[in-house]
Amino acid sequence: MSDRLLVLVRHGQSEWNLKNLFTGWKDPDLTEAGVAEAREAGRKLKAHGLVFDLAFTSVLTRAQHTLDLMLEQLGQTKIPVHKHLALNERDYGDLSGLNKDDARKKWGEDQVLIWRRSYDVPPPGGESLKDTLARTLPYYVQEILPCVLRGERTLVAAHGNSLRALIMVLEKLSPEGILKRELATGVPIIYRLNADATVASKVDLAA
Ligand SMILES: O=C(O)[C@H](O)COP(=O)(O)O
């Protein structure tokens, strides 16, 4: 029986995560802690006996660097890697580069939470989760899912909100259901899919 394996990993801590800045499509690299998280993610995947046939990532440095570090730990640096902006973080628009606490002081706790976690309210000049889903989902359906369903064991290194969008679809979560879903940096989530693309099992390596 083919192993329809799909592993999703949010990048390790970035320089701007550390500084508490809205990042979106800005392109900071990982911090030392982020590098350590990515290596740890790779070690955990290896400890679970996982092997991959290909990987997908965004066009942003923090996700690519995380993927490279995981593949190093797995001893799998030669597998094909597909990079696409469909997997980029949600575009935070005018908030990009602003401190999240300063934004709360300026616009209020509730408004900032709406921008960060509501399904369909975009931050000024940026993308809502719904907008993010509108670009990640077609890429998932057309490029990633066919590989998984063919039995190609697939690793995806991406971002908090591009992955929340995919998780919403995979786990059939409602807009309310996804609201409280936070993704820790550098923590793999291991899915195995049924032939009809529904989730057969899920293991969150944070748990
Ligand atoms: O782009 C960012 O600032 C973060 O990677 C994700 O931010 P969020 O948790 O505020 O959505």
From TrEMBL:
The alphabetical list of record keywords is: Gluconeogenesis, Glycolysis, Isomerase
Pfam families for this protein: His_Phos_1
* Source species, domain of life: Bacteria
Under catalytic activity, the entry for this protein gives: (2R)-2-phosphoglycerate = (2R)-3-phosphoglycerate
The residues the record assigns to binding substrate are 10-17, 23-24, 62, 89-92, 100, 116-117, 160-161
- Which GO terms fall under molecular function for this chain's record? phosphoglycerate mutase activity
Instruction: Write down the PROSITE patterns for this protein, in alphabetical order.
Output: PG_MUTASE
- Asked if the keyword Isomerase belongs to this entry, the reply reads yes
The protein in question is named 2,3-bisphosphoglycerate-dependent phosphoglycerate mutase
Question: Which organism is the protein's source?
Answer: Bradyrhizobium erythrophlei
Gene this protein is translated from: gpmA
